[in-house]
Amino acid sequence: MNADGWLADTRTSYDTVAVSYADQLRDAIAGQPYLRAALALFADLVRAAGGGPVVDVGCGPGHVTAHLNELGANAFGIDLSPVMIDVARRDHPGLRFEVGSMTDLDLPAASVAGLLAWQSLIHVPDHEVPTVLGHFHRALRPGGPLQLLFHVGNESRLKTEGYGGHPMKVHVHRRNPARVATWLRDAGFTVEAQQLLDPDGNAPAAILSARRQS
């Protein structure tokens, strides 16, 4: 996969499923107490670090961004898919959403007080992850918290259909939390906590909480 190819495929896939995706996930957080607790902790860590703008990278239709704002965070969203951003603006008027790529994150250095990336690194190939985490590190203020949510495993698969049966062409990468933690440390982050979700189920996930080193 070349960079342009996987990015273009990911953008087109999520443009295609954006409306169905939003309909399916609109109330997802309400039924996930561990996810709600993770977001509340993230918002608390941002406040404890002095507060300021928070970016939700790979925000999709904006439901997580909106929840963070409900928790008192000054959160805005960035997503690769223009249609996802249109849906986010439709569903959450008054909040800030922008089209952008985590592989070339267009944010000034040290401009955000916190950065969250939930289930968005899962489509980034291994060789691009250090670049992405480098952008995260650059955009975060020293001491700012970072929270990642991702699928756990050791395999990758090509997803060709989803969210109402629409065609997709995205690779979904499942990763070992220890490997992601190593990438974070190499990028200049201190890993502070790890949580496994549904470890005995069919779709285990992990949350890693880290902080940009001062």
Structural class of the helices, strands and pairings? Answer: alpha/beta
CATH superfamily: Vaccinia Virus protein VP39
Which parts are unreliable, with pLDDT below 50 for 5 consecutive residues or more? none
Q: Give the % helix.
A: 25-40%
**Percentage beta strand:** 25-35%
The global form is globular
Order of helices and strands: HHEHEHEEHEEEHEE
| Rg measurement, Å | 16 Å
What is the CATH class designation? Alpha Beta
Could you name the CATH topology? Rossmann fold
Explain the overall architecture.
- The protein is an alpha/beta fold and 214 residues long.
- It contains six helices and nine strands.
- The chain has a seven-stranded mixed beta sheet, sandwiched between helices. Strands 6-7 form a two-stranded antiparallel sheet.
- β1 (53-57), α3 (63-70) and β2 (74-79) form a beta-alpha-beta unit.
- The chain is globular.
- The mean pLDDT is 94.
Please provide a brief summary of the model.
By secondary structure, the protein is an alpha/beta fold. The mean pLDDT is 94. α1 runs parallel beside α4 (82-91).
Structural descriptors:
214 residues, alpha/beta, 7-stranded mixed β-sheet, 9 strands
Topology (elements, then pairings):
Elements: H1 3-25, H2 33-48, E1 53-57, H3 63-70, E2 74-79, H4 82-91, E3 97-99, E4 114-118, H5 129-139, E5 145-151, E6 156-162, E7 166-173, H6 177-186, E8 189-197, E9 205-212
Parallel strand pairs: 1-2, 1-4, 2-3, 4-5
Antiparallel strand pairs: 5-9, 6-7, 8-9
